[in-house]
Amino acid sequence: MRHKPLHEQVIVITGASSGIGLATARMAAKRGARVVLAARSGDVLAEVAAELGPRAAYVVADVGRREDVQAIADEARASFGGFDTWVNVAGLTVYGPLSEIDYADHERLIQTNLWGTVNGSLVAVEELRKHGGALINVGSVASDLAFPFQGLYATSKHAVKGFTDTLRMELIAEGAPVSVTLVKPASIDTPLPNRARNYMDREPTLPPPIYPPAEVANAILHAAVHPQRDIFVGGGGKMFVMGKEFVPGAYDELAPAIIALQKRSEAPRNPTGALHAPVDAGKERGDAPIYVMRTSAYTRATLHPLTTTAIAVGLAATAALVLGSQRAKRQL
Description:
CATH architecture of the largest domain: 3-Layer(aba) Sandwich
Low-confidence stretches: none
Helix content: 40-55%
């Protein structure tokens, strides 16, 4: 399935006031698309829309509320006659042991991360069924991996994966001209940790390796034209997922190290974060205390099928040679 060129598309982006959503909005507009921006931070959205010019519209919306999400679709129709791609980016996180987190914080995270994606997907598909297009959900490597001290975040992203996969299958069964892509970023240098609800005794951060948000934005916009089922952003994340599949017990034993890697040395700055109210929006990048990769060669390669096939064949050949060598040694 192929879709319109990007410069002919209208793209809806939730979570567009910071991080991956903001980077995607700017990149899409730069490449000629018209964009409909949605987030809770109206003042930031107004500034971004003014920056992008007449090709941008915005809606103040809480994606956890179905009526707000419907208003996003209504605005896309009113401003640009509809939309071709819908991107669900909005997401929050909470740092701390599961047993110490207030129920209201658990509930708010699930309402945004899971129900926000469900609401956006179902509203989007209702429109896209009519003329075709792309639905792109931003999950995480946490869709496949558990992260201690971000337990509900991992739970929500596992659920997003299950929902996205199921919706894709149902659309295939009915023959709908809608592609469904799940993008799974590794650690990305966005303000997500800075805006998190934090129960830890230290300021939170992300485990390495860390990649720039532009890598995710590029993958999202690629999928808007050339759909792929899943896209991992960051070879490091893909490596951990593969390792966990082979030796899940060994991954579990990494829990103390993973917890330590999510803590900076300094005291918490704003433990309340943006979970229940928008704060500190308007930034694409965070302030990662370690080196941030410039690009992901792995992700760039996977966006091109021929290159991906060559890599897969090479890996398979290498594995066959290694296994054959080991087998020969045992026979000797």
